[in-house]
């Protein structure tokens, strides 16, 4: 997290800095009291292989790596391990969401099994399908939704490919146990060409006797998540479509809360708060509420701190659904008719990836909303790597999907995306987006600029009314760059410790302590509240780099703004 904010312009390929994006926060130790409402890092989980914590901006950070790669060669899982169900539940295991600790004698088997799904299958197989889970909702949530019988009914669509028996059926049982049966039309399991033996006849037999009507739709060929969901949606009889991943656990009240939003406004697409089911222990861990979904310059979905307006609204009533610029895409509910009116999914996208952003932009730009319902909490097993093959190759598929998003929805920002993303640029010309552009025209959707201005005003993309380019120190002829982060985090931030103060880069909050003014005659960058100048440190140049000093007119305090074309 330590910043290395200044580097040679020549060496580093021109690092583009967007002035409004980076904000340099000066925190005088003396004024630490002024640090408003900062939330301190909260550790969720930590061991030798993984660390999860909530950072100061309320973002969940997962640092870790896949356990069990061949330091000691782990034998491959056998055919039987892969194809037979070894589900062997013990009543106390995982009860109320507590972690499952595997006994030392089972560690080798655990690692073998881990390879199959990239989560701890041995732990999952010990947990009952109807284990109890903690209720992490705010108290008030349980008093709402008394009129739930008046809500629209839903089909719950779960796509799976070679899913483990215990995680798939725990998903199904959690739906059964935590949903009012009046609200569930049916559960539809869509099998995307699984090869596992137990997912064939055994699964069919098993679902015959479930308390909620459950069906399986099969695809003989691997069609990918997007087309598999479309297959499920086509057959769905419910008024609402609710999509879940195949390794989730729903908690009490999750469904009423989602459906009440759609009852109030059928054009709102609503997501639950996604809690974390730990991939190594299957512990059910509360995730942080104060974030929403957005994306970075590479069109990767990311969680960011909630916008100021949403935070204010939440102060009045933290149980109310709040807007989110994009959705993660795995778990959401949507009115079925609206799903089709809006063009369902882009059928020329393949397998997985980018479809969540495509739908997010389409929903917002074409008259809908995306919200997160804080009274709805669903756990999801987050994995560090994917166990699945990616038909067509991950790069070509993923970047074709993203290129389609950029071509159809991003206007000028599409060109910006292609300029900085070579892999997408390479597949751009192969895309035929005529039908999707026609859809956009027919629905009279708004522009991407409107989306940025109104739905995500905190965005950090270039715009014509902002400077976009390099900030160069005149004295050193070097550029200001955002921190080079070792730790995975979603926002540019880091520390540079110097003399009496810290210089820190973080996402904009709108506070005065983040504001600077630029004098284009003296070329000074002056801090608004203390009138000091951004300077390059004499002693610790380029490792800890930036300081603020009294303004003295020296070249090390002169910064020039070199515009870069972005369209
Ligand atoms: C284990 O599986 C990998 C990938 O499927 C294969 O390349 C390798 O040969 C297998 N090793 C053994 C010992 O079977
Ligand atoms: C789960 O189901 C088993 C039997 O199938 C039952 O004995 C147990 O009480 C159930 N547990 C919960 C938490 O409902
Ligand atoms: C995808 O592209 C990246 C960056 O060019 C490359 O490092 C990686 O090997 C590629 N992966 C595949 C599977 O082609
Ligand atoms: C692109 O798709 C449209 C309809 O989706 C079709 O009419 C058109 O011929 C296609 N263009 C090319 C170059 O394939
Ligand atoms: C400096 O700013 C002023 C007012 O904002 C503007 O009129 C002037 O052209 C600028 N000068 C340079 C050299 O950019
Ligand atoms: Mn998943």
From TrEMBL:
<feature type="transmembrane region" description="Helical">
    <location>
        <begin position="12"/>
        <end position="31"/>
    </location>
</feature>
<comment type="pathway">
    <text>Protein modification; protein glycosylation.</text>
</comment>
<keyword id="KW-1133">Transmembrane helix</keyword>
<dbReference type="InterPro" id="IPR000772">
    <property type="entry name" value="Ricin_B_lectin"/>
</dbReference>
<dbReference type="Pfam" id="PF00652">
    <property type="entry name" value="Ricin_B_lectin"/>
</dbReference>
<dbReference type="InterPro" id="IPR029044">
    <property type="entry name" value="Nucleotide-diphossugar_trans"/>
</dbReference>
<dbReference type="Pfam" id="PF00535">
    <property type="entry name" value="Glycos_transf_2"/>
</dbReference>
<dbReference type="InterPro" id="IPR035992">
    <property type="entry name" value="Ricin_B-like_lectins"/>
</dbReference>
<feature type="domain" description="Glycosyltransferase 2-like">
    <location>
        <begin position="155"/>
        <end position="338"/>
    </location>
</feature>
<dbReference type="GO" id="GO:0000139">
    <property type="term" value="C:Golgi membrane"/>
</dbReference>
<keyword id="KW-0808">Transferase</keyword>
<dbReference type="InterPro" id="IPR045885">
    <property type="entry name" value="GalNAc-T"/>
</dbReference>
<keyword id="KW-0735">Signal-anchor</keyword>
<keyword id="KW-0812">Transmembrane</keyword>
<dbReference type="GO" id="GO:0030246">
    <property type="term" value="F:carbohydrate binding"/>
</dbReference>
<keyword id="KW-0430">Lectin</keyword>
<dbReference type="GO" id="GO:0006493">
    <property type="term" value="P:protein O-linked glycosylation"/>
</dbReference>
<feature type="domain" description="Ricin B lectin">
    <location>
        <begin position="503"/>
        <end position="559"/>
    </location>
</feature>
<keyword id="KW-0328">Glycosyltransferase</keyword>
<dbReference type="InterPro" id="IPR001173">
    <property type="entry name" value="Glyco_trans_2-like"/>
</dbReference>
<keyword id="KW-0333">Golgi apparatus</keyword>
<keyword id="KW-0464">Manganese</keyword>
<keyword id="KW-0472">Membrane</keyword>
<dbReference type="GO" id="GO:0046872">
    <property type="term" value="F:metal ion binding"/>
</dbReference>
<comment type="similarity">
    <text>Belongs to the glycosyltransferase 2 family. GalNAc-T subfamily.</text>
</comment>
<keyword id="KW-1015">Disulfide bond</keyword>
<dbReference type="GO" id="GO:0004653">
    <property type="term" value="F:polypeptide N-acetylgalactosaminyltransferase activity"/>
</dbReference>
<protein>
    <recommendedName>
        <fullName>Polypeptide N-acetylgalactosaminyltransferase</fullName>
        <ecNumber>2.4.1.-</ecNumber>
    </recommendedName>
</protein>
<keyword id="KW-0479">Metal-binding</keyword>
């Amino acid at each position: 997290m330590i910043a290395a904010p200044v580097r040679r312009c020549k060496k580093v390929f021109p690092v583009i800095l967007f002035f409004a994006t980076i904000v340099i926060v000066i925190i005088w130790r003396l004024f630490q009291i002024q640090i408003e409402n900062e939330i301190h890092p909260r550790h969720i989980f930590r061991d030798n292989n993984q660390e999860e914590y909530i950072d100061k901006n309320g973002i969940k950070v997962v640092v870790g790596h896949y356990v069990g790669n061949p330091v000691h060669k782990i034998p491959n899982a056998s055919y039987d391990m892969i194809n037979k169900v070894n589900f062997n539940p013990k009543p106390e295991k995982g009860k109320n969401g507590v972690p499952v600790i595997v006994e030392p004698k089972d560690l080798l088997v655990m690692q073998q099994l881990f390879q199959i799904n990239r989560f701890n299958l041995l732990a999952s197989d010990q947990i009952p399908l109807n284990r109890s889970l903690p209720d992490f909702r705010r108290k008030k949530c349980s008093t709402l939704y008394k009129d739930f019988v008046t809500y629209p009914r839903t089909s719950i669509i779960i796509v799976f490919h070679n899913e483990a028996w215990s995680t798939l059926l725990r998903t199904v049982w959690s739906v059964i146990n935590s949903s009012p049966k009046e609200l569930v039309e049916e559960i539809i399991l869509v099998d995307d060409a699984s090869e596992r033996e137990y997912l064939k006849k055994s699964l069919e037999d098993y679902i015959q006797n479930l308390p909620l009507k459950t069906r399986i739709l099969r695809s003989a060929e691997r069609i990918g998540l997007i087309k598999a969901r479309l297959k499920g949606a086509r057959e769905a009889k419910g008024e609402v479509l609710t999509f879940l991943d195949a390794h989730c656990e729903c908690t009490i009240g999750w469904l009423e809360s989602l459906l009440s939003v759609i009852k109030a406004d059928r054009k709102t697409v609503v997501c639950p708060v996604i809690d974390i089911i730990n991939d190594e222990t299957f512990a059910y861990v509360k995730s942080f509420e104060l974030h929403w979904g957005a994306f970075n310059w590479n069109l990767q979905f990311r969680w960011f701190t909630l916008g100021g307006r949403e935070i204010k609204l939440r102060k009045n009533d933290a149980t109310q659904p709040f807007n989110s610029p994009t959705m993660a895409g795995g778990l959401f509910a949507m009115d079925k008719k609206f799903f089709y009116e809006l063009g369902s999914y882009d059928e020329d996208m393949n397998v997985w990836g980018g479809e969540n952003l495509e739908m997010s932009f389409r929903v917002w730009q074409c008259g809908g909303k995306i919200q997160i319902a804080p009274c709805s909490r669903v756990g999801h097993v987050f994995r560090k790597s994917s166990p699945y093959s990616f038909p067509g190759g991950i790069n070509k598929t993923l970047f074709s999907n993203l290129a389609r998003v950029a071509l159809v929805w991003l206007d000028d920002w599409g060109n910006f995306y292609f300029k900085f993303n070579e892999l997408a640029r390479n597949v751009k010309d192969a895309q035929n987006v005529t039908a999707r552009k026609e859809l956009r025209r027919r629905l009279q959707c708004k522009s991407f600029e409107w989306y940025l201005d109104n739905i995500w005003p905190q965005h950090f993309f270039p715009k014509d009314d902002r400077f976009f380019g390099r900030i160069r120190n005149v004295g050193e002829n070097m550029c200001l760059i955002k921190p080079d982060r070792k730790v995975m985090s979603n926002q540019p931030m880091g520390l540079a410790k110097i003399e009496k103060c810290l210089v820190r880069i973080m996402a904009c909050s709108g506070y005065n302590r983040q504001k600077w003014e630029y004098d284009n005659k003296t070329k000074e960058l002056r801090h608004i509240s203390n009138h000091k100048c951004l300077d390059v440190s004499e002693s610790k140049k380029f490792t800890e780099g930036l300081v603020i000093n009294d303004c003295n007119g020296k070249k090390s305090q002169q910064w020039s703004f070199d515009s870069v074309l972005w369209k």
